[in-house]
Amino acid sequence: MSETSKSDNIDLENWMRDLPEQLRNVPIIYLAIPGSHDSMTYGITRSSGLAPDAEPILKRLYPIFEGTILRWTITQAVDSYQQLLLGMRYFDLRLATKTGSDDFFFCHGVYAGEISQPLNQIKEYINKHPYEVVILDFQHFYAFTPDDHRRLMRYVLNMFGPQLVPRQADLNTVTLNAMHRLQQQVIVVYRDRAVYATGEFWQPQMLPSPWPQRDDINGLYNFMKQVRRHPGMGFVHQAVLTPTPAFILFRWLSNLREKCAKPVKNEIYPKLSEFTPGRPVAGEDKAPVNVIIADFIEMDNATFSKTVIKLNLKLLKTDISHSYG
């Protein structure tokens, strides 16, 4: 069977369950895991309104160029449940409060919907798929008070409870098999100092996610190749282009999908085969991949998630028992 047909035969809905037993005993920080960038922007609509993270230029232009701005803030086309069915196991979450409401909302310059439905979809999915593990990365918080953090953390703790993977001193113990034995399926990374109020959430340094901040393919590729990571921690490679206002100005009538996501799909995805998951080794010239995130993850029959998941097979060519046993 060719490598291509092997890739196409992956059951994306249950890919963690279906990994070879040796890989289910590899620490999760050394597996290749596909994720979505700005995961909840599919919820952005014309009635969304500007969010607290909107840049000043957006606030000036929004009343006139609302449609254009929305085309450049939406990075995903399918909801969280569909993303899970397509193999996503990491969600990049940006949250904001809204004046006059006690609810929390996802955002990306504009509001992208209240958080309960997407999180309930994730809860429903893991309940139906006991071998799958999901990473929820609470990446940014806008217009949050200390009390807002307490309320949000309580909400997440109440929703996932015993399914959470507590913060660990040694992440080498966190494997798919170990989590399944403990019936734990959700890793929450909480990127605020409020994380220290509970032992159930992981600290930001346990899963660094450096921002490439590049609007050209070569710059992005070089960043991904040259970035370094700590051997004992997880890592996020961001396979995304970041459009600047100047970049958008010259592509005003287009959108992020056409001018950012598709070039990454065409030019970066094929190069992902050069990367390898596993433990970082001192002196090596590239960082092994762990989580890799992208925009519009459904494109071309989910070629992104298939490409990333297939990278795990490279670990079978190493001495797994010696490296991770």
TrEMBL record:
GO terms assigned for molecular function: phosphoric diester hydrolase activity
Superkingdom of the organism of origin: Eukaryota
Pfam families assigned to the protein according to its UniProt record, in alphabetical order: PI-PLC-X
Gene3D superfamilies on file: Phosphatidylinositol (PI) phosphodiesterase
TM segment ranges: none
SUPFAM superfamilies in the record: PLC-like phosphodiesterases (SSF51695)
Matching InterPro entries: PI-PLC_domain (IPR051057), PLC-like_Pdiesterase_TIM-brl (IPR017946), PLCXD1/2/3 (IPR042158), PLipase_C_PInositol-sp_X_dom (IPR000909)
GO biological process entries: lipid metabolic process
Protein name: Glycosylphosphatidylinositol-specific phospholipase C
Organism: Danaus plexippus plexippus
